[in-house]
Amino acid sequence: MAPTILVINSGSSSLKFALIEAGSGRVVRQGLAERLGTEQARLRTRSLEPGDGGSEKSLAGGGHAEALVEILAHLDGLQPAAVGHRVVHGGETFSASVVLTDRAVELIRACSDLAPLHNPPNLLGIEIARRQFPQLAHVAVFDTAFHQTLAPRAFRYAVPQELYERHRVRRYGFHGTSHSYVAGEAARLMGRPLSDLQIVTAHLGNGCSACAIRGGRSVDTTMGLTPLEGLVMGTRSGDVDPNLHQFLADQTGRSLVQITDLLNRGSGLLGLSGGTSNDMRTLLQARARGDAGAALAIDVFCYRLAKGLLGTGLIAVLTTAAAVLIFERRDV
């Protein structure tokens, strides 16, 4: 058999893997552990061999560590030649993929405060896989790298210059590997060069974002400094009034850490539905039973998604000059 690459995508509530033949790109085995941290957590794996219906195993209450250990046991003795890891946030430190060293791992860890739901599970996957395969090369691929083509007018916040220069406060964008791939596939299916297209892509899951892509380059996206900005997501609020933290601190006595955690882990679809679920499949079932909270969560999600797609769509096709002209004519 040709050499294989083990690819690990350790997300906020799921862990995907694929064992892929180097060169051909043929998937030998793949799987998904989802709803991690809940009693509904499950691992599904399958190969692409004819007649393989796959397997499914309960991971009830299990998290990322349990899922990855179980995934490694499903490689059927196949030894990968290298391991690739999806990492959400590389800050301004990483603008391309890198071979993982101890130093690189520490630099990724230093970005964890920018992606509290994602970099820790990303690092957990890296650490377990490096222990399991210490002799192999491990490569990190960053979601933020694709958006390094954003112009300053798109990535800068309207805050004092010092905050950017000293603390790198700016918009980074996420889901870059997904947006890049989807744009390329759209161009392929249309039979047109990606360099000739203006495309709006959407990544919709427990985390959600939209991206404006012009000529194959990201020109704007809905996420910002952290994955909290932008669209309504599974447990994340998306855009809120920037003064909400102070308001909640005054009204509820919560600390800054508690409020940030609430907006990241207790909001979005989960919060809007009154705690019913952060999973759209569960919410659709609940809405069908007449659950008003589930109906509201779905309605808000779709409304905010439409706003995000319209906004990024305009950015994808407008030049700065055209945008200024429109604003002037509307007296904005």
Produce the secondary structure layout.
Blueprint: E1 4-10, E2 14-21, E3 27-34, E4 42-47, E5 55-58, H1 64-73, E6 82-87, E7 98-99, H2 102-109, H3 119-132, E8 137-142, H4 152-155, H5 161-167, H6 176-190, E9 198-204, E10 208-214, E11 217-221, H7 244-252, H8 256-265, H9 268-272, H10 280-288, H11 292-317, H12 320-329
Parallel strand pairs: 1-6, 6-8
Antiparallel strand pairs: 1-2, 2-3, 3-4, 4-5, 7-8, 9-10, 10-11
Helix pairs in contact: 1-3, 10-11
Overview of the structural elements:
This protein has 332 residues and is α+β, with helices and mostly antiparallel strands. It has 2 domains: 4-142, ATPase, nucleotide binding domain (Nucleotidyltransferase, domain 5); 149-329, 2-Layer Sandwich (Nucleotidyltransferase, domain 5), CATH 3.30.420. 38% of the residues lie in helices and 20% in strands. It has 12 helices and 11 strands. Strands 5-4-3-2-1-6-8-7 form an 8-stranded mixed sheet. Strands 9-10-11 form a 3-stranded antiparallel sheet, with helices on both faces. Strand 3 (27-34) and strand 4 form a beta hairpin. Helix 1 (64-73) runs parallel beside helix 3 (119-132) and helix 10 (280-288) crosses helix 11. The radius of gyration is 21 Å and the shape is globular. Mean pLDDT is 89; it is low at 320-332.
